[in-house]
């Protein structure tokens, strides 16, 4: 089938099944599939809701003519068997970050408005997962119609732990061979061939803080999101001070128990893209520190640590700012602050970094900060930068297909975000979000309130995915 005939068939297919696509996205969005390790159990390693979303995703693939496999609840995949066992694969995820606050539409449903879909996961990554399933469905129907298998096996991998540790795909690669080539629809067009390194860690105060005016502090949802909201509960002289010193974006309210609740409003977003955001934790802490000497020495020292971590998003405040010619500049986010049951404070850090610095350097700097501020630091995830040669034939195939549909001549680029692609030997991130499209102000970004995506962008992405897979099937990937 020549390209123009295939493209016409793809156009007709997308028109035919689009309402089913939207309803399948809705089915997944209704599941609050945030990782819940507290309620994990054998067969449900990421918690019950994440497992429910995995099962729902696999049920969609089965209905669409693929052969689904639930891999002990860690992850799943669905195959369209080809003439060869060599695989071309997609991988998308059905877990989400917490919904958070600030929504004007139901977070756990799909709202259609003026050509957009709104709801947690419509863009990251339940909507794109459904696209990958329907791209495979197109070929399943063709195989059924013609009786001729594809040259390679087409596999749709269903991730279930992407927003936290990506331990799902680590488990997968311990038990299954990597595909010959894979793309993940969990990022931007035109095509992402590299990702910055990722480093996570957490600071904790040594002693309880509730002995002075700070009763509790709470802000953010996950380390990889810039917090749009932060709260503090204070008492005594601290409460009276803060009650009278609120500024723009910060409000306070006296409670019946004599405490004062202070709330800071910022501008949230993804940790890898700090431009245009405003960290609410930093805003709150700077107001609290303006009180001067009312805090205990330990509380003040920890708040000063939080302040310096939130002062800049490029790491310059603590001396780790750097960049290179491939990945650009480092980013730093202090994303979650908490007071635990024992009254001890904690703050997370998320660093996205180029090849000009190492995780060992971060540990050195963060340990020194912990010592200076009388707290502890525990290093977490550390992943080196990932880069794939953009001249790889499979990558050029995807890029050419995107440019053909858009009438452009765009090139592959690198990002600060982390996707599944970095775990595979030959992989990239490929749409579906298109930065060329200007969304209305009421459309939120991934990880934020009113997360949304244009239906037209998704429709075009589905066409690009189908055509790209068809062309990948023509390459020598053995």
Structure description:
This protein has 478 residues and is an alpha+beta fold. The protein has two domains: 3-195 and 386-472, Zn peptidases (Aminopeptidase); 197-383, Alpha-Beta Plaits. It contains ten helices and 27 strands. It has helices spanning 3-29, 48-63, 126-146, 167-175, 236-244, 280-289, 297-311, 359-372, 393-406, 455-472, and strands at residues 67-71, 75-80, 84-93, 111-113, 116-118, 152-159, 181-184, 187-188, 192-195, 197-205, 214-219, 225-226, 229-234, 250-254, 260-265, 269-270, 323-324, 328-329, 331-333, 337-339, 345-353, 375-383, 386-387, 413-415, 427-429, 432-433, 452-454. A six-stranded mixed sheet has the order 1-2-6-3-7-25. A hairpin with a 5-residue loop joins strand 14 and strand 15. The chain is elongated. It starts with a helix and ends in a 6-residue tail after the last helix. The mean pLDDT is 94.
List the defining traits of the structure above.
alpha+beta, five-stranded antiparallel β-sheet, 26% strand, Aminopeptidase, 2 domains, Alpha-Beta Plaits, six-stranded mixed β-sheet, 10 helices, 478 residues
CATH C-level class of the largest domain is Alpha Beta
Separation, N- and C-terminal Cα atoms: 23 Å
| Mean pLDDT over all positions | 94
Please identify the structural class as seen in this structure: alpha+beta
Strand content: 25-35%
- Regarding quaternary structure, how should these chains be classified? single chain
């Amino acid at each position: 089938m020549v390209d123009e005939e295939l493209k016409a068939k793809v156009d007709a297919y997308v028109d035919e099944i689009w309402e089913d696509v939207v309803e399948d996205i809705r089915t997944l969005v209704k599941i609050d599939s945030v990782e819940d390790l507290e309620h994990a159990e054998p067969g449900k390693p990421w918690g019950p809701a994440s497992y429910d979303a995995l099962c729902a995703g696999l049920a969609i693939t089965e209905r669409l003519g693929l052969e689904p496999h639930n891999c002990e609840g860690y992850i799943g995949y669905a195959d369209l068997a080809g003439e060869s066992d060599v695989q071309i694969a997609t991988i998308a995820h059905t877990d989400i970050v917490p919904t958070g606050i600030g929504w004007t539409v139901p977070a756990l449903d799909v709202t259609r408005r003026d050509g957009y879909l709104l709801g947690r996961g419509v863009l990251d990554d339940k909507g794109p997962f459904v696209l990958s399933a329907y791209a495979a469905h197109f070929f399943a129907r063709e195989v059924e119609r013609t009786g001729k298998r594809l040259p390679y096996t087409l596999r749709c991998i269903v991730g279930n732990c992407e927003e936290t540790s990506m331990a799902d795909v680590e488990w997968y690669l311990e038990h299954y061979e990597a595909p010959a080539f894979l793309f993940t629809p969990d990022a931007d067009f035109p095509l992402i061939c590299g990702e910055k390194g990722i480093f996570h860690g957490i600071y904790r105060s040594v002693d309880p803080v509730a002995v002075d005016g700070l009763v509790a502090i709470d802000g953010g949802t996950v380390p990889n999101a810039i917090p749009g909201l932060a709260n503090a509960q204070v008492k005594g002289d601290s409460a009276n001070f803060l009650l009278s010193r609120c500024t723009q974006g910060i409000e306070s309210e006296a409670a019946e128990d004599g405490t004062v609740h202070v709330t800071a409003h910022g501008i949230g977003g993804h940790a890898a893209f700090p431009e245009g955001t405003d960290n609410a934790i930093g805003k709150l802490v700077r107001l609290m520190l303006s009180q001067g000497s009312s805090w205990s020495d330990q509380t003040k020292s920890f708040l000063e640590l939080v302040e310096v971590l939130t002062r800049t998003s490029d790491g310059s405040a603590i001396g780790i700012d750097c960049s290179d010619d491939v990945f650009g500049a480092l980013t730093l986010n202090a994303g979650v602050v908490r007071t635990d049951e024992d009254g001890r404070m904690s703050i997370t850090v998320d660093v996205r970094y180029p090849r000009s610095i190492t995780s060992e350097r971060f540990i050195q700097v963060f340990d020194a900060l912990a010592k200076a501020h009388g707290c502890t630091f525990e290093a977490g995830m550390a992943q080196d930068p990932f880069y794939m040669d953009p001249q790889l034939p499979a990558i050029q195939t995807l890029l050419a297909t995107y440019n053909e549909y858009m009438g452009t001549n765009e090139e592959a680029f690198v990002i600060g975000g982390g996707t599944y692609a970095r775990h595979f030997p030959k992989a990239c991130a490929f749409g579906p979000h298109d930065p060329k499209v200007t969304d209305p102000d009421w459309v939120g970004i991934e990880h934020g309130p009113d997360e949304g995506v244009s239906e037209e962008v998704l429709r075009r992405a589905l066409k690009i995915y189908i055509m790209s897979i068809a062309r990948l099937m023509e390459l020598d990937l053995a």
